[in-house]
């Protein structure tokens, strides 16, 4: 009975935290485009390594970077993980005259559970954000066909979440393959208010968009020993082009007059073909050096609008991890680990001819409890996104991620694997 109480306590506390949802208050002007800012973080063991983990394998943690890595989970154990992130952003622009140029928020970002189903099969389920949109700003808008301008206020919020099921399978001694099946769902609310100089005759347009579809991501890993001290792992991921279906309503109101319309579309937004490559070198199970490269073919989707166009995105990152081990006969226990990383990306957005870039550094430190049932990872990331050219906005941000991992016996006796 005590064992079941322990399981329910660990899962219940994390589920209570996740009940707060993926709330976020950070304002990003670039999230007005598409389905918002697409999430680059995984909120897991790789957070302190600049989220470098396509070739990363760890038997004690759930890494969603590559579904093939789930095959490495330890037998007869279950794992529950949750992560929360705090974010602080400062905005810089040549013509920024707002009195509020800083934002901050805190949100629960991930929850996942995983087990080793068979000796050759690991499985994990979880949920985390896929994209977020949150912006609020004012400006002038030209009336088409005239030289007249009107004042405009723009607001937007929402995002897309993913509920995923990762499965990883060992094939022989040196190869694993996996598939991540995710259901993407979420909503976006976009509001535009137009007024004259006296703030009269306001025209308000509100669009509510509800998005959904399945999204599949495939992964492979090859691992072997180079010599007595070094191991090597090669990894790759692939996702095909996917259409997001949408049901959206548009409400236009001017004074007492209002118009309502409803539309259903199977290809409201399309996610591009995506490829990821990774390599990891490990020395005596203590020092890991990893590198990733991710690519998305946005140009093939031919999205283009007033002042912006989509370009192929690229992200490169490197990370390292050092584990402090202790021999507790007959086992070797990891007491602490230290992480660091660098990343650089060309995002998929090109605004007024300026390619939006994102670059930064990361660091992390982790602790494991004496009985190896509870683990804690605190990761920090500092980055610069955007540019001040062409009167655009530069974002300088700091992120703090706390990841909790609980592991315990799933089966304790009488289990045989064939």
Q: Can you tell me about this structure?
A:
The protein is mainly beta and 418 residues long. The protein has one domain: Porin (Beta Barrel). The protein is 4% helix and 64% strand. The chain contains one helix and 19 strands. The protein has a 14-stranded antiparallel barrel. The two termini are 30 Å apart.
Estimated helix fraction: under 10%
Count of β-strands: 19
| Principal-axis shape | elongated
**H/E element order:** HEEEEEEEEEEEEEEEEEEE
The CA-CA distance between the termini, in Å, is 30 Å
**How many domains, as an integer?**
1
- Computed over alpha carbons, the radius of gyration is 23 Å
Number of helices: 1
Residue stretches low in confidence (pLDDT < 50, at least 5 long) are 1-24, 414-418
What percent of residues are in strands? over 45%
At the fourth CATH level, what is the homologous superfamily? Answer: Outer membrane protein transport protein (OMPP1/FadL/TodX)
Task: Decide which structural class fits the backbone.
Answer: mainly beta
Summarize the structure.
This protein has 418 residues and is mainly β. Helices cover 4% and strands 64% of the residues.
Detail the topology: elements first, then pairings.
Blueprint: H1 2-18, E1 37-38, E2 77-92, E3 102-118, E4 121-142, E5 149-170, E6 175-195, E7 203-225, E8 230-239, E9 242-254, E10 257-271, E11 274-283, E12 287-296, E13 304-305, E14 308-310, E15 313-328, E16 331-351, E17 354-368, E18 374-386, E19 394-409
Antiparallel strand pairs: 1-4, 2-3, 2-19, 3-4, 4-5, 5-6, 6-7, 7-8, 7-9, 8-11, 9-10, 11-12, 12-15, 13-14, 14-16, 15-16, 16-17, 17-18, 18-19
């Amino acid at each position: 009975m005590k064992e079941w109480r322990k399981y329910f306590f660990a899962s219940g506390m994390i589920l209570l935290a996740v009940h707060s949802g993926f709330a976020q208050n950070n304002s990003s002007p670039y999230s007005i485009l598409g389905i918002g800012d697409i999430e680059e973080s995984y909120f897991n063991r790789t957070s302190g390594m600049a989220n470098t983990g396509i070739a990363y394998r760890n038997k004690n943690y759930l890494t969603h970077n590559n579904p093939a890595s789930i095959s490495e989970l330890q037998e007869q154990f279950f794992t529950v993980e949750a992560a929360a992130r705090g974010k602080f952003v400062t905005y810089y622009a040549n013509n920024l005259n707002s009195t509020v140029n800083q934002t901050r928020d805190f949100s629960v970002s991930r929850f996942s559970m995983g087990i080793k189903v068979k000796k050759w099969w690991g499985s994990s389920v979880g949920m985390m954000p896929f994209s977020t949109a949150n912006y609020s700003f004012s400006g002038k808008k030209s009336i088409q066909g005239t030289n007249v301008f009107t004042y405009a206020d723009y607001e937007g919020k929402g995002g897309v979440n993913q509920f995923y099921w990762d499965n990883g399978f060992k094939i022989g001694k040196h190869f694993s393959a996996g598939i991540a099946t995710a259901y993407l769902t979420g909503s976006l609310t976009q509001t535009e208010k137009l007024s004259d100089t006296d703030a009269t005759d306001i025209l308000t347009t509100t669009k509510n968009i509800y998005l959904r579809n399945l999204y599949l991501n495939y992964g492979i890993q090859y691992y072997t020993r180079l010599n007595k001290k070094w191991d090597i792992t090669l990894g790759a991921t692939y996702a095909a082009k996917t259409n997001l279906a949408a049901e959206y309503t548009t409400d236009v109101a001017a004074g007492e007059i209002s118009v309502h319309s409803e539309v259903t579309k199977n290809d409201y937004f399309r996610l591009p073909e995506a490829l990821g490559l990774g390599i990891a070198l490990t020395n005596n199970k203590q020092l890991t050096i990893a590198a990733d490269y991710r690519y998305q073919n946005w140009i093939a989707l031919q999205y283009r609008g007033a002042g912006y166009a989509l370009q192929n995105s690229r992200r490169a990152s490197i990370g390292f991890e050092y584990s402090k081990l202790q021999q507790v006969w007959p086992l070797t226990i990891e007491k602490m680990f230290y992480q660091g990383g660098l990343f650089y990306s060309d995002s998929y957005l090109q605004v007024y001819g300026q390619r939006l870039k994102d670059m930064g550094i990361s660091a992390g430190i982790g602790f494991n409890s004496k009985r190896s049932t509870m683990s804690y990872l605190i990761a920090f990331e500092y980055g610069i996104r955007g540019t001040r050219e062409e009167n655009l906005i530069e974002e300088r941000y700091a992120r703090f991620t706390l990841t909790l991992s609980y592991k315990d016996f799933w089966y304790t006796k009488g289990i045989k694997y064939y």
